[in-house]
Amino acid sequence: MPWSKNDYPDSMKNLPDEVRDKAIEIANALLEENKDEGRAIAIAIDRARSAVGKGHGNDEGRPVYHLQPKEDGWQLIKENGQRSILTDETKTDLSVRAKEYVKEHDGILVVHKEDGSEDQRLYEN
Fold first, then answer.
1. Rounded distance, CA 30 to CA 68, Å?
2. Can you point out the beta strands (E) in the chain?
3. Radius of gyration (C-alpha) of the chain in whole angstroms
4. Rounded distance, CA 48 to CA 85, Å?
5. 39, exposed or middle or buried, with CB in 10 Å at 0-12, 13-18, 19+?
C-alpha cells in the first residue's frame, strides 16, 4: 500500500516533516521493489534521516533516553531528566517497553550495565 503525506505508518509520526516526506518517498520505492513492509519502513526512516536529517545524518536534536539501574530495579529516564518514565524490577522486562517508547519518540536509547557504565547505544544514525 503506497503512503502519502496524509497517510503514513505510525512509526513516522514523530519525524520532522522533511524527514517524514523523504521516508515516505523511500518506503514507497522499496515497496515497489517487493521489500517487506516493516523492513521498508525501517530502511526508509534510516535513509531519510541520513539524507535530510538535522546535521545531514547525525543525531543532533533527537532526545536521548537512558535505561539504567536504580535502587530497587531499573528505570528509563530522559537525559538530564529528574523522574523515571518507566520502571521495572528487571532490565530484561523493562528493555522491551523502553525500546518501544524510545522508537515512538524518535529517540536514542543508551543501555547501561548493572554497574551504571554504558553498555550500548541504539537507534542512532
1. 37
2. 64-70, 73-78, 86-88, 108-112, 118-122
3. 16
4. 28
5. exposed
- Long-range CB contacts for residues 26-33, cutoff 8 Å, separation at least 24: 27/3, 28/2, 28/3, 31/1, 31/2
CA 111 to chain centre: 13
Q: Is residue 51 helix, strand or coil?
A: helix
What are the grid coordinates assigned to 32, written together? 515497489
Give residue 73's identity as a one-letter amino acid code.
G
Per-position pLDDT tens, the chain of length 125: 689 999 999 889 888 888 889 899 999 999 988 888 888 898 888 888 877 754 444 566 789 999 999 999 999 999 999 999 999 999 999 999 999 999 888 889 999 999 999 998 887 65
